[in-house]
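User: My collaborator sent over this chain with a note saying "see what the structure looks like." That's all I know about it. Can you take a look?
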Amino acid sequence: MSTVHAYAAMEANGTLQPFEYELGPIGPEEVDIAVESCGICHSDLSMLEDVWAMTQFPLVPGHEVIGKVKAVGDQVSHLTVGDQVGLGWHSGYCMTCDQCLGGHHNLCLRAETTIVGRHGGFSDTVRAHSASVAKLPGDLTPKTAGPLLCGGMAVFNPLVQFNISPTDHVGVLGIGGLGHMALKFARAWGCHVTAFTSGGLKEQEAIGLGAHDTINSRDPSAIKAAMGRFDLLLSTVNVKLDWNSYMATLKPRGRLHMPGAVTEPLDLNVMPMMFGQWSFSSSPVGSPATIRKMLEFAARHNVSPVTEHYPMDKVNDAMEHLRAGKARYRIVLDRN
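Assistant: Without extra context I'll predict from the sequence alone. Here is the result:
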């Protein structure tokens, strides 16, 4: 038995406060991670506010974990004590269903999530199934790598999943925590990248993050002028937009994909989609193999999130900074 020191909320919208719990004996396929830092994803805030009605309290948020392996089960062969690793949204999979056996672990119906029904990374230790723990490439900076494990994975996965070509045109809606990483990944992938922004200084920021050009998202005529332009649109927003206007910017056989979690129903006109053979889709992060590929790609192409850092004992200040929409662009909690 070992004692974990964490920060937990006892109720929806509650203050995160010191919390301790005991870890039992480690399982044969499990890994314990000594947390060094943990990114704050907007999903952590949604879970804290119980927006999705699936939060269990006490809640220890945090699913963009970076740390070193401190213990491994006796059947773990690909990780050893001292390895620098990362852990994202999923902490385990059944490993026997058709999705897992087909390499689509992120679609496993019995997958365990790091902060749903278990305690996450706002702590000094996290336990997870070894298949969900990824070893970091040596030339990836651990201090800023945390947000890659969820936010980065959410926008990288579509590039792999839909066989996006380096000659494709990609548009990104919402240049925030996810969107700024989408610009960086799509640019490094070789695509022509367009950022939909609200204008002003955000246009300059988007160009600096990797966009080749921008479209003012508050100007309907500018959106209309982009008709038939994009092979892929990545929407990273969590609010309702005029989706039909954005669908019209797709090329024939183009796709609007939503890594952003919009909870309101979507109003889509099917006839234009039919004649353009447009697709609309979404996806949950990625498989362990794709996570490893993403980390290797990020290291090779120097794709790094733009981060702000808080000590972990200032977690409530950090959460309020995110709630106020002031994060630029991802917040990381550091334990040291």
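A starting point for your reply to your collaborator: The first strand starts at residue 2 and ends at 8.
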